[in-house]
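Running this now, will post back.
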Amino acid sequence: MKLDTKVIIIVADDLAIWQRLNIVSFITSGIIAQNQNMIGEIYRDKSGHQYTPLSIQPAIILKAPRDKLKTILQRTQNRSVRAAIYIEDMFATGHDEANRATVQNYITEELPLVGIGFRAECKIADKITKGAKLHD
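Update: finished.
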């Protein structure tokens, strides 16, 4: 099945691996929450055990310098693409309410972004992420 959309997550290139993985996890949940049609069917093994459904669409993980993340966020907003974000302050919080409170401390241009993700049509996604590199 060929999809006409892409899920893309971009993380800051100067973070520790555990931080990058944490960001990918949180941002993925935000994208799926906004696109519940991305969830597939229950998995079953030959023994009959059931497993939770997974996303029908793989995510592309990119990396970029922090200043490029601000540019990417601006591009999503210019194209009316809703983004999931993760800011540096969220590493020090312990729950969703505190995460949302830290974001509210900043105007858009001053958000200390360390991760951003979105789902968009393929051509739009490519334009938004220009300059980011495939994560290694």
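The chain has a mean pLDDT of 95. More later if anyone needs it.
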